[in-house]
## 1
Amino acid sequence: MKSKDKKKVSRQGVSRRGFLKGAAIGAAAVTGADLLKGQAEAKEDGYYPATTSPSAEFDFTQKSGALQPDAIIDSACQFCNSLCRLKVHVKDGRIIDVLGEPDDPVQSGGFCVKGPMMTQLVYNRFRLKSPMKRVSGEKGSPDSKFEPISWDEALGTIATKFLALRDAGEVRAICASQQRFAIANKTSGRMPRGTGSVIGRFFTLLGSPNDTDVGPVCNDAGGNALAWTFGLGNFTNGYGKDGATGKEDLGAAKYFLFLGTNQAETHPVTFAYLLRSRAQTKAKLIVIDPRLTPTGAQADEWIAPKPHTDQALVLAMLHHILDKNLHDAAFVQKWVLGFEELKTHLVKQGYTPEWAETITGVPAGKIRQIAEEYARTKPAAIFCNAGISHQLNAFDTYRTLAFLAAVTGNIGVNGGGCNFMHNTWPGGLNLPAIEGNPPKKDVALPVGPDYFAESILTGKPYRLKAIATAGNPLVSSANTRQVKEAYRQLEFYVYTGLFMEESAYYADIILPVCSGFEMETVYMRRDDRAIRWQKQAVPRVGESKPDWEIWIDLAHAMAKLDKKNPPAYWTENFPLEWKDYRNLWATFVKNTPGMGGMTQERMEKRAEPLRWPCPSLDHPGVSTLYLDHPSWYQVVKGLGIRNADTASQDSDANRGVTATSGNQGKRFLTPSGKVEIYTSELEKKLAVAGHAALPIFYTHPEVTGKNPTIEYSKEFVQNPINPQALTQKVKLGGISSGEVHQEYPLMGMIGRPSVVHFHTVTQWTYTGKQMNGIRLVQIHPKVAQRVGIKNGDAIAVESPRGSITGTAQIWEGIREDTIFVPHTFGPMQKMAEELGTPYYEAANTLVDDQYYDNLSGQQAYKCFACRVRKA
């Protein structure tokens, strides 16, 4: 096919809406051929051209004086974990164009629609440009009034409040010997790498244990499960070639098993790389998702289980593989602990494909088919994302998936692995040891920033008084109505961000931050542990500052006001030289095992990103973890075991790799040096929180039918996965009543609106609102017909927590019992007025915050009981 014809097909494919007509959609699996009239045409939907410039016979920009850049700056996109390099063309200090990196074989010169939207964060009339303080109005009200203040006043106000709370000890005791400080923080995925380590250091000096990260609303559970099973909480394989072996890694896979991941829209450029590789290898792609996404449209088979039941499907796959002796016996004998216990467990629990059919709605024969294909096709790669993470059984589901890879010998091989997205590199970026004697922090609130609301409103286990956030909890947190009430009652709130987002209206102090093009840093990271250096392309907007600089300056404000400690307590632990990110990064490289080769100088020279671990300047970086190869064992010597108890992979806090001599010669970095499915020590640790080393099936009580579910006790225990925090002990296996479905008969899921959006920030760009400023709620035609809804109707979606509005999108590619509600929309997104699109309440208004994974803290966004009606 000629390139001109290829682009024509691609453009037709993007807008195609009728390709599902006549397809038999439901729980049963269907093939791409069944769904699509012409698989070749369908494959073009995921096609990304080598450049984003429109094709033309002639280039009329050549020798244009106005359009020739003065400089081309190597930066990077912050909008997803594909980590595309952006070559920013600058003229007279202004951005005039953005192109991709042609010399990166994974990026292949391209990027998705979001790349140029980075510029729209810089040039945006809604940007916050100076610190501000609240002067009037009820918290949360759009009539709230703020006035600009200096940075000195803003940071002085925050320091004064933090110190007053620390010194007053305004906390509620959990027991007589334990006092807690009432100050908390929540970081965000938008922050430059290492900022979390700086903030963690600040909270250590302050003495508050409540320094939390974005993981519980992102993908922490996958990293936790990987760490407990294999030793490192990281995405196990890499895109492109493995530098140690010279072999293709994920591109060599012969079988792709995707569960709960819509990579065509969430990771489009790395997914395009997989598709290009698949065109050569003829690898089979299986997509498991309750709805047909652009990713499913590329698949050989799309399988649609009931929401929140993936664990049952994987348990049944394991049962069939072991029952038919399809496992890799040699690998299991040499490298796996607990295989026989797993086999006995699966039989005892009766986790057969027939049992799973009653839970998931997927035919038993189809489960057996994909189990056999996965076990017999090597190498086979598993990919997961938020569709698995945002379930209340996320940790146990990910552990089950890790077992699947282990027993089939698909771990530690090029083209295989457990590629649980956003569990990247390394768990912590380390700073030097703290000077002085900080107070003991003890344990924090239950893992997950959504528990902040519970603490504020009920005082259980104690009451928070002050919070600083880098995210937007008034949109991202479950049960938005309750979170709003909590932040209204919160005594003191600091919001840092680019725009007057929903959370800013609850703030007492607002701090403006830089966008990605306005700073030199390491920003995003690719899922396969790869990072890029990015240079500052343009000056900072207004008085905005990068996050790490804000916290260093706040530490120096504390030094001026702290009456209990000398100034050096703060200033020596936060040297001003760290405000230059090059110096801060050099400190991370020096103090973090496995990063010796990841210097700023080296990364600046590379077209490709560099993968961790990378212990020396002559090391290529590790692609495949646990590879039975001399290069891996060489890395292990200096890497140090990451303690699985403390692995939280989306955190930058100081919970990372620590040197130890006990891992030399080990292939897997578990205590035993093997894959640990079951050990008595694992069983003992997990039992504290109500779990077991061999997971049992349970699901959300709002999944239709009567299913094994979860009960939360009032007892708080130390979290075995995250021992720095408390958690509620649970009881698993009780049967749900199903009563909620008498009024709310459907199951709702929340997720990404389209490839255009990345969380709420893209809703503040012209392109984002222009292309996808309408919340399109996907509803099966039969459901729409029953309630009298037509395509394009204004509708309301209601759950026991509240209701939101949207526009009906009649969509045959979704289970009849399920609807899909896009998130990222919020009621204060002023770009809506610019483009004439509606203002929307947060989708998470519908989601229950009482049900969460008590190990990882993951919120359960992927199932809530609901109903729909015309608005």
## 2
Amino acid sequence: MPFVTSGNDSSGESRRGGPASDDTSSAGPPPSRTTPTAATDLVAARKQLLRRTDGAKRTDAPALRQVMVDLHDFWLTTKGAELGVRPDSGFAIVAVGGLGRQELLPHSDLDLILLHDDMDPAVVSEVADGLWYPLWDAHIKLDHSVRTVPQALQVAASDMSAALGLLEARHIAGDESLTELLITGVRRQWRADIRNRFVELVDQAGDRWRRSGDIAHRAEPDLKNGRGGLRDVQMLGALAIAQLTDGMANLRPDSPGAGLQVAYTRLLDIRTELHRIAGRPREQLRAQDADEIGAALRIGDRFDLARVISDSARTISYSVDVGLRTAGNALPRRGLAMLRRPPVRRPLDEGVVEHSGEVVLARNAIPSKDPGLILRVASASARTGLPISASTLSRLADYAPELREPWPSEALSDLLVLLGTGRHMVAPIEALDRTGLWGRLLPEWGAVRDLPPRDAIHTWTVDRHLVETAANASRMTTRVSRPDLLVLGALVHDLGKGRGADHSVVGAELATQIGNRFGLWPDDVATLSAMVRHHLLLPATATRRDLDDPATTRDVVDALGGDRLLLELLAALAEADSLATGPGVWGDWKASLIGELVRRCLRVMDGEELPTPEPLTDDQRARAEAGGVFVDIAATENAHTHLVTMIAPDTDGALSKMAGVLALNGLRCHSATAQSHAGSVVDTFMVIPAFGDPPDAGLLRQQLLQATAGTIDVLARIDARERESPIPTAPPPVTDPDGAPVAVPALFALAPPRVLWIDRESAAGTDGSPRTVLELRAADRSGLLSRVSAVIETHGAAIEWATVATMGGTVIDTFGLRLTEDSADLRSRLADAVIAVVPPPEPPRETDDEQGTSGVPIG
């Protein structure tokens, strides 16, 4: 387990035992030479401290760390005195890592160095054995080394991890002058060599970030090693010791995250509670622990905890960006580099220049008299791709006044320039947000800042999702007649979230307020508000309702008031929003559905007759009347998508058997339609082969004949193929406390499946039978459409049409149903039966590897 053997917090070497010497390297503790001493009392005190979890007796996280430090300091000091490790003894006990920083967590290793002044090896061995063996015998995890000061400095000079650990060294007991020699020597050596070691330090951090990911947007973040984690703050501390940066990134106390130190302390408290709850040195926060940790820290539920983590991690990430950039610019120059002329200041905009690769204020800029300077700085940064200087942001935060309302046209123009730069806008907006400047421009932003999504399909926090949507929308500005409204609508479309009401309704009111502040014309304010109010209209209608039903198009046109511009903007916004949601949310199937809905709406707006459902072709009618089985596969404009037409007798389970045959041949169904004629069902499927070309239509027909005749069980074959598949579909084996295996389902969903009922305006068809719409949201699996169709058709419902949407590993399948009766009991039984055939939610598993992740976001 990496957290048991890690030596990254120590002096650079991880040693669990062996004879004490200057070159200890044994892989584990040797046989005991002594009986347990007072170390057992230390262990007992630790256990008693961690058992205090009831109400007032429970020690909070900061106090727990301090008590842990005091306990270990006391034991080490006492034991050292017993062994003769006293002032002027030639020995010193030095702590590094968590104990060195006085941030010892409940299950962290002890990272210790026994320093000696070139003493007799026999005496050194006796002292070291007397110190290490009681700790080993008490089963306290220990990283240790025995060194002289020159030896320790030599290790620090060659090992980056050792150097970083020794920069945090703290004297515990013994000869303090030895410790002082070590600490001053390591720091002097670090400052002298930083020019040569800076690249290695940055590369090491980059490797760590690639392994552990970004904490702010990670489902189950590594609080210690991830980007924006505790290690990053310690790296900034090392750069501050090298006198290259102050490590604080010029963040004001009133900035989001309240500054770097507060962000660091929050993550440290969360990591402390994670250790306490897990009962071991876990660094990855898992979903099943989030609610308990949030309650212990009085933060709230797992969503509140996720928001705090995101806020803290983004503050630290911003500080690291600034710190590394500042340190790189401050590196001491040598040789010919010392003779180079100072960098030239290059004008970028009014009052804005480029200097040393950063966007800074011009010498004659006066922030207190120039409210629009913030947006000019941000737009210049986005246009050039250059970062904004931390000192510039700090100066703007201190002196820039609020923009008057309505904004001057120049300010709105600069905002539109910023929003039109695509992904280049992300970094400057993040910089403005971390320093409190973005909130001055958009006070409504505070409600969604670091707000975690409630749906697992979303990749980003709500505020970052808005920025990503605007970045996507900026690539679509040539498609619409009002690109300014498109990017503004993308930026504010979800601002109503986190306010306890329908975010589209609340957001529309906020959009009116924001539009007036921006100085838009009244008609444009109304359009912006309508964009936010109806930003879900097109995707929801296209994926949930029958497009061949004339009422579907009329409802959309009526909702939009026949406004062609609004329809055009909503179509582009739907795509930008979907692309910013997560992988697989936007694809050919969704684009085609929304495109068809938009075309139908435009025809109605232009006064054309609303198209009726497309009739069957003469060939399809003839084949349906013949009563046989027919299968055809046709290519589409997309090279990877194919249209499959199947005609068979209209019997119970026809759709299920057709979908099952497709799944059996590796054809993923993305949409389906069904019509009946002369006792036959004519179904069309838009499919994508799992790989290669689709199978021959004759093979599909032969299998459909066998399925219709009942000679093969398609679902049974799909189940058998799932069991034989080499692709793992189940988590690692689960065992009970006695080691016996626990039976678990073969498939798991990352989020619980849901069945929604969407009643249509017309409750009954022409035959008097009730109609409704069933929407299934669940994890995908092979043959899911076939399984669900079979269940529906055997539980008192007939499928009139279906729309299949696959978003990554999640499906949203919508079925237009004709019921034999419309009763709560029938709906309940049908919903339960559908849920029974989809992958169930994944149960909590305590046996996962520490580095694994269930994928269930804590927020």
## 3
Amino acid sequence: MKMASMQISIYYLLSLFHIFTILIIPTHSQTISRIPLGSSLLASPKDDSSWKSPSGDFAIGFRYLDDQNLYLLAIWFDKIPDKTIVWHANGDNLAQERSKLELTTHGELKLTDPDGGTIWEAQSTNVSYGSMLDSGNFILADNISSSRYLWQSFDHPADTILPTQELQINEVLSSRDTRNSFSLGRYQLRLMLEGDLVLTVVSNPPGVSYEPYYRSKIADDNNTMNSGYRVVFNETGSLYVVRRNGALFNLTSQNVESWNDFYFRATLDFDGLFTLYSHPKSPRDGVNWDEAWRSVWYEPQNICSASTGDYGRGPCGFNSICSLDSNGRPSCVCLPGFKLLDSSNSYGGCKQEIVQSCDANNLGKLRENYEMRSLNNAFWPSSQNYERFPLSSEDECNRSCLGDCNCIVAVIKDGICWKKKLPLSNGRNERDTYGKALIKIPKNNNTFWDNGLEKVNNDEKDQSKLVLVLSILFGSSLVLNFVLIAASSIAIFVSYQKNKKLNTSSSLLETNLRVFTFEELKEATNGFREELGRGAFGTVYKGVITNSFSGSRSIVAIKKLEILAEEGDKEFKTEASVIAKTHHKNLVRLVGFCEEGPNRLLVYEFMSNGTLASFVFGISKPDWNKRLQIAIGIGRGIAYLHEECTTQIIHCDIKPQNILLDESFTARISDFGLAKLLMSDQTQTNTMIRGTKGYVAPEWFRSKPVTAKVDVYSYGVLLLEIVCCRKNVKVESEKEEEIILTDWAYDCYKGRKLERLIENDDEARTDMKRVERVVMVAMWCIQEDPSLRPSMKKVVQMLEGVIEISLPPCPSPFISM
């Protein structure tokens, strides 16, 4: 027993040591600016005073909510333009004008209305003063010790935690209700008693938490000492869970920016994502200072698919469809025949525009008054299925739902028809899951989605038209009959050709791509005037397109393909469909396509910060931490293409020019999936050499199968370029040994002279441990023998420090030993 007790004591001492090392600034180092008893603030448009921290970074006071004409007691970042709120007290009970926040002479912190009634108060006794600290923590303390807090806002978080703040077991972050409302929302983050950090949806009214839609998987059922018991947010922008044995579970990836230059916050957003944000402390080039918060990390990665269970309405509310936008956020739209419950809240769910009646007198008229429309890849996995049966044809499911007054949606999946009642919860669009939803709407409803929605009963209408034509023929003169026969034949032929064309494009329509005409893209690019770049697949132009629904305009990159494989038409459709079904934060998203005559064009989202080549090979060396984060992002994107797509995609041309950077400098891989447009079979075959000189794997030049390991090789070269901020071949180098980067890098690694690779890079030179780690990973990637190269998933794990790296052998026998 004594030994067990001693072990537990050691575990706790280790835990305290880790916490001490994580929290860089101890409490005694913070400057205190005391707010004396009797001080007060007034909620008034004529008085915008607040209690500020010594540095001026934070302030506490009243924030006027002009859409409600009421006041919120809050703490906010005071030096940045948008004054971002990080804590609030009375979101569900907003204050009127002339309400007062007072630190009374008795040491009570109270928010009262104009009549003196208490709206909110901090429970504490023996208070001597208050203070707004530079950490963003508002405290009430006594005179006994400056580090003894009788009450602090950090112990009562709202939706945000700040660096140096901790969350204990069962302590909760609660989201806001909507983007602009500070009322209690329906999402919670909590460190569970068993030690896992979870995100859950809370019932309405609040009280019951449903099944988690995100779980950190820290807890170990076989060893309670491995379970988490405290969440710590350190000043460098990293979130940890401290285990009971003192070990740390890192929730976020490596640090992205220097904490000296950036503010950080971790917020449970109103849309259910727990997000780590950073914001520069001073204006800088290329950053919109008014909207400079950017997402560094978030969970879950796909909230649409993560939300499951039998209860709750899902991220978008009942009777809606959830899909991810380009930033990984849920985007919501109502089903056809439905409209928003609240026109100002697209996340609040939808209701029927015309309620279907089950009155006995109306049952016989269902097929007359309703029609079915289909939506590809739409599912409600947790909604109630009240009937299911195997199908012989899609029309069977269509007719069954159409004549059933309880059926609103029928889902066809895996040869089964599933009939569903209202309400429909957790709706999502899953591009990688094949199936179809049939949605019943009134015939006079004109709602139409151009991202895959189509009428189901077109064939029936065509048959009705044919019967009508034949009836006219038999009732008319012989001459007129011949004329009508000829006209009808032409009409039927044209209709057939049109339907044939639509059917051949169905796989693309299933992916919700927009189909452009060549003239539309010619107009969007002003005659293909502004060229963004050229590559093996064609030329890229900058363009501006208009959203057909909202009327909004967005900048796009339009790739005009110039070389296609044999049977290029078929290959174009197939590969465009594969590209469209990929979705990852480190891939450039395909917006649409054009397939018209000889013209083959692909429309991508526009990346505002250009290519990695221009970023890394510029005059000055970019931030070291940012370069590392970009490298890891590229690795994750390639790993997704290799291992997580329905169809494996080998890029075949990984290089800095094919890595683009979005507005937040997140790496986005482009040109993936296009290799098959230039060659008919790229996977495990002996074929023509593709790729770019310097990045091409050795097996391209030999009679060896080409596998995903060619991308691993190219990534290794790219990794060295990111570390050294130089190209892989430097012809103008004065030193012969430095011309080929891969050879030189191995010589430096073997000779323990890695500092030569990062000369004039002060940030990297102070982080030699990670420099060595990245170079070792690169050495494994560029092994001449493909079987020695790790998978991209393992490469990412090595870079992130999840797994150890063994000493790499010499990559090539031709490198000097």
## 4
Amino acid sequence: MTVGTDAEAAPRPPLALELLVHGVGGTTPERMLDDPRTVCLAGDDTAGVHRRACDADAEEHPEQHREAPVPEAYCWSNLTSGNGSRALWLLLLPFMVANLAHWMRPPSHRRTLSRGYGAAVRLLALTLTVLLVAAACEVALDLVGWQCAGSPRCVRGSSWLGFAAAGSGGWWSEPGRRLALAALVPAALTALLWWLSHRTWSAYESQRPAPGAAAGPGTPSLALPGFWYGRRSVARLRAAHTAAGLLTVAAAVTVPALRHDHGGASVPLRALGWALAGLICCLALAAVAVTCRAARSEAGLDDATDHRSSRALLAASAAALAAAACYAAWHRPAWTATGRLPTAQAFIVLTVLQGALIAALALLAALLYRSPPPESVPAQADTDTGAGQGDPGEPPRPVALSGLAGPAVGLLACGLGGVLTGGVAQRAADWLDRGRTPGEAGSPLAGPPAVLTWEASVIPLVLALLAVAGAAVAWRLHGRERALCGEVEAAYPDEQHRPARTRQIAAAVARARLTDSAPLLVAVVCAAAFVLGAAAVTGALTGGGTPGDRAADAPAAVSAAARAAQALGSWLVGAGVVALVALGRRAYRDPAARRTVGILWDVGTFWPRAAHPFAPPCYAERAVPDLSWRMESWTARTGGRIILSGHSQGSVLSAAAVWQLDPATRGRVALLTYGCPLTRLYGRWFPAYFGQQPLDGLHHDMHAWRNLWRRTDPIGGPVGIRGTAGEGGVDRGPLLDPAAYGRSVSHPLPEPVRGHSDFQADPAFARERAALLARLLPAGGKALPAQGISGRSSG
């Protein structure tokens, strides 16, 4: 009886939890937990926390789980995948790339420069929205409503345009009325973008983060309570971009009618046109002002809304568009459609404006990069080596393109937008002209603006440059494989080496190192895009014609090459759009294809929509609050310990979630990362958020962190944080991969090169997990000794 009483009075042992977070490829709870029977403890079909059925009530029986932590899986793959219709988000790739440029600013304490950088990126993103809507106006208003419907030869083979054909005598046969009708297409596109942005924000990004710790001086950005909650800024940007799109359509309808009326219409009609043009300009300036002021407020949860001002701007823009349609539809019996719309020159203005914004962005980024960085966390010297966090003798980690990654990526976004709009316009003109080349003798169409034709024509040259760069990379890769063979054989000293096996392992290591060459490749592509884009604008401004027109008087070979480039460019863009959608659909259905394209996609959609509200939704604004809420609520309820185990992109989500925790909860959480791109990818391209000082600060705040890495991993790598006195560094590796060179008693079958996957199969994983668990605070609040933490892992 006494024994039973003592047993009942004894305190329950603290429960340990291993919260698993998968990476880019996505997986199922059954695969993560290695059990066919799982239950969902919290969440929904989009993202949820799962356990094995036998562990569902582990909190009620902690004494049964003393030997190992209870595994629990957080599955978030449906935030970025799902049905195949989401592949259409790939068509908004320029918006996503522009949004990335916002987060690539160099770290600096100069707030004025940082605000200017953010405003420049937002304005650049606004020009991309205007470019997309202007391209829709070019196709619907200019090519279809103005040129084709105004030409009897073009309408003859298009029965669907017969009701609006010039000279048919119908109500829609007047040019202004055709423009008003065609304006429904770009207006509907703008409304669709607004609806998608509003719907996806409500579904994915409206989750409130955990309370966390109060923000103070020197708090890292990712630890701010409002970092993952940009409600007001997204609402402001959505209103400004939607208004800009509607005003672009209104201007495309108003300017042709105003130009006609300027020649001899009645005074009241001219006055109405000028007043409408003035209203459009004022509203456009208001949209620009809202964009400049739509900076994120991350120090707290910004729940304030600007419904009144946002609705006023949207209502005024919609009213301006309706008034413009009515003004253009006014009866003008002497008006005929000839040539191109006068608004075609707007594409040159947009291209030049984007170039100016890129130049300003590059100047701001250079000033930020050269300014003193923000103060780092206090250094803790290692008495054995004389080094520590923030050690002056430790070389700084590399930053992509010397701080110019943001402007380079912004230029890439503009290049993608220009190529896509130019190619789509050229392809639409070719389709309407039924095989003839628009603008040439015998063609009923003048074709798209010359600058769009030039942009489409440079695509074959860009692809040729990429092919040359690819060949150079392949040659370099071959040489690197041969140089690594000696290192591979040295890693397996007691094996009988075979050339084929050695080359296989060396090739895996060489391919993994290609990731480190990405900045150089981006620099080459951006430089080529800038030169070719400038050449396209120059060609359109100086000659006004297409490449084929400019080369008409040149030798026959040059003229044929110019015309072939013009035709091939338009076909390549059309094929590229189809291939992009097909690749996106395959990526959502085929895990292997998803791993291939999912790297860029998941990096791009990890960041909140701070520059472009029409970019694909940010899954981290749902996943990070999910993880932080789960850890804080579970530790508060049970007093237990958590191993937060993140693979690949899951390690980035895990680190972001740990930043959001309050100090008491963080003391009960250990971080185990593997295949981790925090330094290799995020630290290099996003140094203000994952650079040396933020990661050193995270390690300083939580201590219990280990990172496993392999040389054969093309994505993950070492974090590069050195340890303090009595403690090893964060990194454990490189782990030996493959685990065995050839067959042996312990490895009777050939061991594969695992690269980025299956880290749990390495014996070091279990050892480091147990050592991390030993460092956490148990229920009594006294730290346990770090058993095995400083030991060297396998490989």
